[in-house]
Specification:
The chain is α/β, with parallel strands linked by helices. It folds into two domains: 30 residues; 294 residues, 3-Layer(aba) Sandwich (Rossmann fold), CATH 3.40.50.1110. Helix content is 40%, strand content 20%. Strand 1 and strand 2 form a beta hairpin. The relative contact order is 0.14.
Length: 327
């Protein structure tokens, strides 16, 4: 009996090794490892600084240049480390109703002058409204929540526009991005608990996590089940984070608009539509809004939203804000 069990285990291991080799030869399911709490030290950056509560933010009162699609763009920050136009005024002087923008590099406006981002377009459309952009490159869904709680609520906002890129859901599982470490949750019986260094798996599990293409296949399947049917680890953790974002806005009497930005090639996320319908939250999906060539709303090489993509979001956001401004 023992030898039969041993033979079965060895056969399974051999089969997995063969599959790994086959995936490697075909160059499919390339591993995308997650990082663990305090696995690496924070690095130095002239553009961003570490923030223990959220992960990172822009260096305050600073500017720097990045090149996107062969175009040099200068990014400016205010005294709180948030992106602003070149000639900005202090946040402390704002006395109008406020709209917070949450998200990652799409919301931040990578590749565009601030005035051409949807935040900048909305800001110029209202004289009695102040737009505060809390988005940062590399943010995950968890950091969208952290930025709302640790940065946003103190601004006493009236409205929040959260732009969620599909990849933000993967980033909820990793404790590092850009140059810095970040807080990361684990799902413990339906409760969000911050991970610690003790949650790091053993050496073998860590190695397989970083090298195994089979694990990448498993993760892709888990994400597919989550996006379509609300099953699996990928969706369960991120649903809890979405719940926190929604609850925080409701408790603080903040109107919430959520925008889903799909991958450049498009990806359906029907469960997200059902989720926000059930929560009675205003929600738009660029998959559904764009009729025709989805790629024309993204930079060809960089794959971030281009000027057309930001104009599209700004058009809908303007209508939504107009309807909620006096509420």
């Amino acid at each position: 009996m023992f030898y039969k069990i041993l033979l079965s285990v060895l056969s399974l291991i051999l089969a997995l090794i063969i599959i790994e080799i086959l995936f490697s030869v075909l160059d499919i399911y390339t591993p995308r490892p997650i990082h663990y709490v305090e696995e690496y030290k924070n690095e130095n950056s002239n553009s961003f600084k570490f923030d223990k509560n959220v992960g990172w933010k822009m260096v305050p009162n600073n500017n720097f240049q990045w090149i996107t699609e062969k175009k040099r763009i200068k990014y400016y920050s205010n005294e709180k480390g948030f992106r602003v136009p070149k000639n900005h005024t202090s946040l402390d002087k704002y006395n109008h109703k406020k709209v917070l923008i949450l998200g990652d590099s799409h919301s931040w406006g990578l590749g565009l002058e601030y005035d051409k981002t949807f935040g900048g377009l909305v800001d110029r459309s209202f004289e009695d409204l102040d737009v505060i952009n809390l988005a940062m490159p590399g943010f995950g869904l968890d950091q969208i929540y952290f930025s709302l709680v640790h940065w946003g609520i103190t601004e006493n906002p009236d409205m929040v526009i959260a732009v969620i890129f599909t990849d933000d859901f993967f980033r909820s599982f990793t404790a590092r991005a850009l140059f810095f470490n970040k807080p990361v949750f684990k799902d413990v019986n339906g409760r969000l608990i911050l991970k610690s260094p003790s949650d790091r798996p053993n050496t073998l599990a860590t190695y397989l996590e970083k090298k195994s293409r089979i694990i990448k296949l498993y993760r892709d399947g888990d994400e597919w089940l989550g996006r379509n049917y609300g099953l699996g680890k990928w969706w369960n953790l991120n649903k809890l984070i979405l719940d926190k974002i929604v609850e925080t806005c409701k408790i603080n009497n903040i109107q919430l608009l959520v925008v889903h930005v799909p991958y450049y090639t498009g990806n359906k996320f029907p469960l997200l539509t059902r989720y926000f319908d059930d929560k009675n939250i205003e929600y738009i999906d660029l998959n559904e809004m764009i009729k025709g060539n989805l790629q024309s709303y993204y930079f060809k090489k960089d794959k971030h939203l281009n000027e057309n993509g930001h104009k599209l979001i700004a058009k809908y956001a303007y209508k939504w804000i107009k309807n909620n401004l006096d509420k």
